[in-house]
Amino acid sequence: MSGDLPFACTCGTVTGTLKAKAISRGTRATCGCKDCRAAVKHLTGKTVGQVEIFLTTPHHIHIASGFNQLSALNLSPKGPHRIYATCCKATVATVPRSSRMGFASLTVDRFTDPSATGPVKSAFFRTEADGKRHLGVPRAISGIVSRGIKAQVSGGWKRSAFHGPDGKIAVPIDLITPDAKAAAYDI
Q1: d(CA 67, CA 176)
Q2: Which domains does the chain have, with CATH numbers?
Q3: Where on the phi/psi map is residue 118: left (φ > 0), alpha (ψ -120 to 50), or beta?
Q4: Which H or E run contains 20?
Q5: Three-state DSSP class for residue 96
Q6: Distance between CA atoms of 51 and 124, rounded to whole angstroms?
Q7: Low-confidence residues of the chain: pLDDT under 70
Q8: 122-124 and 27-31: which strand pairing?
Q9: Distance from CA of residue 117 to its chain's centroid?
Q10: 50, 44 Cβ separation under 8 angstroms
Q11: What is the DSSP pairing of strand 70-74 with strand 90-95?
Q12: Which of 33, 89, 108, 167 has the fewest C-beta atoms lying within 10 Å of its C-beta?
C-alpha cells in the first residue's frame, strides 16, 4: 500500500512495513524503564536513557524479509517478548506473550523515516530533573486499550506478524541467563 512506512534491522536483513493507516492511529512514545534499557544493553552493549517506541497493533506490521533471523528475548519467564534481529542484534519490537492482547511497540529508530510517526506524545519512566516520572500516559493507555478492543472485535489479533495462528510467539525464544540479566540491569 502506498504510504506504508518501511523499517529494517541495522544490517538490512530483516525488513518490513508498518501499514499507512496505523501511522495516524498509533502513539509515538519514549520509555526509560529498566526492562527496555536492559534489553538494549544486553543486545547491543550500549547504555541508553530512553528507548523511542511506536505503539500500534501487530496486524498492521508486515515482515517482508528475514523472518528467520528474528528471535524473542525474554528478560523473565512471564514477561513480554522483545523481538530482535539475530543477525545484528537490533531491537525491532516488543509484543505480549499472546497475540490476543492486540498490542505491539516498534522501535522507532528501525524506521527509514522515523519522523513519519510524528512527535513523541507520551513518556514513560522519565529520568529528567523536573521530577515528572510520566507524561501523556492516559492518552497512550487509551490508545492501547482502544486499538486492542478493535483488534479483538475485528479479529485482527489473529494476524500478528510475530505470533502464529494459535496466538503463541512464532519465533525462537531466548530466555536471558541469570548472569547476563545481572549484567544487563547494571545500568
Answers
A1: 21
A2: 5-182 (2.170.150.70)
A3: left
A4: helix 20-25
A5: coil
A6: 10
A7: 1-2, 129
A8: parallel
A9: 14
A10: no
A11: unpaired
A12: 33
Nearest of 48, 130, 42 to residue 90 by alpha carbon: 42
Nearest residue to 83 (alpha-carbon basis) of 160, 186, 184, 5: 160
Contacts of 55 (CB under 8 A, 6+ apart): 26, 27, 28, 29, 103, 104, 105, 122, 140, 143, 144, 147
Q: What is the dihedral of CA 140, 170, 52, 9, to 10 degrees?
A: -150
Residue with C-alpha cell 508498518? 18
Place of cell 505480549: 96
Which residue is listed with cell 486492542?
A: 148
Report whether 72 contacts 58 (CB < 8 A).
Answer: no
> How far, in Å, CA of 141 to CA of 139, rounded?
6
Residue with cell 496505523: 22
Three-class DSSP category at 66 = coil
pLDDT at 66: 98
- Give the total residue count for the chain: 187
Which one, of 149, 64, 179, lies nearest residue 110 by Cα? 64
Q: pLDDT for 14-30, tens place per residue?
A: 999 999 999 988 999 99
Could you tell me the pTM of the whole model? 0.90
